[in-house]
Amino acid sequence: KSSLIKLAEIKVKNFVIHCSGIIEEEDKKERTKIFIDSLSRILPLAEKTGIKIAIENCLYPEKMIGKGEEIIRIIQEFNSPYLGICFDTGHANITGKFKDEFTILKDKIFTFHLHDNDGDRDLHLPPLQGTIDWKWFIKEIKKSNYSGQLPIEIYLPKCLKWNEVVSNMKKLIE
């Protein structure tokens, strides 16, 4: 709670959280209950301070809380305009169900973590340097109700310069 108060002081709009780390299947139900309990404690303060809580889709849905359908169920349980999604493109790509995950989550997205990978490892490559279908993705964002920023979350390879990444992103979104 104290973090939200400090973030409100510096005018943060979105607070991104993960549902869980890697857990055993038999612990998933209990950990989901704990996560929901935590949300019930911080969401009233988020609403009061105007900070949106964005649940990030997870990297390994079979070993974590955070598959698209699970996140939507949690959001619907609270029915708050201050609870939504941080869509992590790299995580969705690793699940092998990128387009399905985006389609399920797109109407609840508050923010993004945009990065690319090879579909196996969370490499945080710049967009267009991995296997994500960025043309499809950008087209779908434009069709959705999302109007915020498109933050990138990358490790910049030595072979690329920032101006190349920015130029590629501009071409992609035009």
What does this structure look like?
This protein has 174 residues and is α/β, with parallel strands linked by helices. The chain is 45% helix and 12% strand. The chain has 7 helices and 4 strands. The chain has a 4-stranded parallel beta sheet. Strand 1, helix 2 and strand 2 form a beta-alpha-beta unit. Helix 4 crosses helix 5. The longest helix has 22 residues. It is globular and about 45 Å long. The model has no long low-confidence stretch (mean pLDDT 90).
Name the helicity range.
Answer: 40-55%
Radius of gyration, rounded?
16 Å
Strand content: 5-15%
Number of helices: 7
- Biggest pleated sheet: 4 strands, parallel
- Strand order within the widest sheet? 1-2-3-4
Basic shape: globular
Which structural class do the helices and strands define?
alpha/beta
Element pattern in H and E: HEHEHEHHEHH
Low-confidence stretches: none
Average pLDDT number: 90
End-to-end separation: 40 Å
- Structure summary, number of beta strands: 4
Quaternary structure annotation: single chain
Can you tag this structure with a few keywords?
four-stranded parallel β-sheet; alpha/beta; single chain; globular; 174 residues; 4 strands
